[in-house]
Amino acid sequence: MAPDAAQRGTKRGGAKQKQDSSLGETPKKRAVEEKGDLRITAVCSAIRDSALPDGCREMLCAAAPGVLSLSIDKRSKVHNMFARQIEHVLKDRSRTLENQIEAAAAKVAEIERSRDELKNARAGKQESVISCGELLQECKTKVDAQGGVVKEKSEALAAAQDAQRTGDATANKLKADAAIMIKARDHGLPAIKNDVDDAATRAPGLATLEPFWRLVDGDSCMLGMLPGVCKKRPSERSDFDNKMIEFVEESMTKLAAELPVKLQQEVPGVLERAKLVNATKAAFDEASQHERTLLEETDRAKISLAQAEMLVMQAQKAEEACEPAILAAKAEEEHAKTRLQTFLVTNIAGFESLRDDALKPQTSLETSDEISGSEAATCSDTKVEPAAVPNAMDISVGGA
Fold it and tell me: Cα–Cα distances in Å, from 285 out to 150, 271, 272, 279, 288?
């Protein structure tokens, strides 16, 4: 029993010693690790940036140094499976960066399209400003022209009113003379013929004769005597006085016949002048109303022009606001391109150099699109702590 146990112990110790010697760092392996250290670090960084579950990322990061630094004659199926999964992760990351570039380019195109639409809209609004300005100028021209018409109509109305006042003065004088004559005839003549001794009774009638004397056509000396003669009672008058009273009666009769005729002759002129005044006033009112309408249109044109100019300013501001957004989107696109280029140079190229160094002599890795469903499931479902796969050499080579 003891020798057998010793023998078994020796075998276990020999196997362990053999395994330790196989896991020992050879100069060749150290050279590979030193050569690929930065590349492996970049690959692990890309794995950590991927969208894989945490356990899968840690498992691949733990396996990557050992897998990618292992020479081809030491690589097993499991090593190759990890290499394919790493390649798949890197290509997914590359596609993600490409999609970011496409999204940034689409954003730039969208903002530029929006800017062009705003520019076209501003051009249309600018045309509206021009149209409103032309309309305003047209309204002002019409207002100026209508102002001349209103002035002309106003002068015509003033002339018609002056002619009416001048022409109607004669008719008005004839009316006044006729009224004076009628009063003198109806009240003054009876007072002259009244033989009453009471002066107060005759006074109102005699008072109506005062304005009448200027209507009588006769010698000034005789006209100056008439008031005194008329104040005498009929029984106190001489023959000469009676003749003067007869003259007064004849003058009244003559005026009573002449004044209505003269007044009737003035009526057509009065009516014509009134008609002319009414017509010129109507023309003046119409011209004034049209001028007010044009002024209102001018005010509306001013408001429209101000609104159109405001819309142009708003459109210009919106268009100018697009420029910083375009610059930011282009910067984002360039940044995405730089990230992709850096990723291709640092991560992809580093991985491919490590992969090619390991596989070119005998085998080539399958692409990420050729990973079998079982291998993908192994990556996504298996939870491996980083310490579980410290080095690809810890995975049994005998499984190859």
Answer: 9, 21, 20, 10, 5
